[in-house]
Amino acid sequence: VYACGRASTGSNYELLLGKEEIPVEGPRNLNFYLAAINADGTPSWIKAFSAFRRNFTSPSEAPKIVAAPDGGVTIISMVRYTLEFRNDTLAEVSASRAIAIIYVSPSGEVNDLQVIPSNLEDLDQVILARNGDLLLSGRFRNGELRIGDQSLRAGSTPAYFTARSYLAGRTIWASPISAELKWRSVGGAYGLLETNDGNVVLSISPGGYNFSINGCAADPHFFSLASFSGETGELNWQREIATHGFGFISDLAEAPNGDLYATGRYGGTLRAGNGETAETGNRDCDVESSFLLKLTPEGLVYDLVADLPRNFVVSGFNVFPDGTYALTGWSRRRAAV
Asked: Which string of b and e fits 188-224 if b means at least 16 CB within 10 Å?
């Protein structure tokens, strides 16, 4: 098992994992770590690195990691300036929004590095496709997206994108989604899913996840889903699936029968596409709750589940072969069960 996260920004703390202290291989001013954890829960090694960032505006979010077939791990992140790992300088990155794909062996050695030029604003999600390709989602500005050798235009700024890339770094396709005026802002594209029939489904959460205790917005925000061909990136369909006072979709999953599940967080009133509604109990959006939307494979909502623990923020969603599911997440305050 591998874990990736933010380390201390100062030099007065040593990285600890579990109850054991293992020397970090790298200067203490490197702000992220990659750790290998044994099957019994004890750490095997911890490596420190710098320059990684999930988005351009916030340097504190850890990069994405995906498992490699040989037991190693691949790190995917936006990078800027000098890219360091342990005590080694891997690359001098001149473009502040480039994407790095780094393969790290089971023993903790960097065996491959690809730096892809881009002009991304945010890299929100990365998952591994069934054939070993990378699927990415995020946002860009100024109406034009450049990622690797792909360049495309959108009818808005900012706008969303999803892309497919080889692990070796070459972009296979990239597709944009232009924002609509009624969205007013563009939030995170955190939900990304490859379906069993090979399509790619992306969640888009106009309005973002920040909210004000002074009241919900006068106009509702929107949750939308978009489906793309996994082979070509061509848009299959795009649908608004709910409105809300504030919130975001954190994860997508597919049921054994092909239905889609979307889960996340909301404040104020949540109104699903099938007409069902839910409220957090406070119209000022200073109380938050989680939700689960069930949809057909074509993105049509048929059920809303909103009686999840209040203040519990869902971050992950897993569906089992028998159709049951499990939610993972965290609590901003004491969760009411």
From this structure: bbbbbbbeeeebbbbbbbbbebebeeeebbeebbbbb
Q: Write out pLDDT tens, residues 31-87.
A: 678 888 888 877 788 887 776 655 544 555 677 899 888 899 999 888 877 787 777
List the one residue out of 190, 175, 189 whose CA is nearest residue 230.
175
Look-up: residue for tokens 């869902």? 314
Assess contact for 189 and 177: CB atoms under 8 A: no
Q: Give the tokens for residue 256.
A: 């054994």
Distances (CA, A) of 24 to 44, 51, 218, 325: 11, 17, 50, 37
Q: How far apart are the first and last CA of the chain?
A: 30
Tell me the pTM: 0.84
261-314 tens-digit pLDDT: 999 888 888 899 999 998 876 666 667 788 999 999 999 999 999 867 666 777
Closest by CA position to 265, among listed 226, 299, 309, 229: 309
Helix (H, G, I), strand (E, B) or coil at 181: helix
Q: Which two tokens stand for residue 120?
A: 């991304």
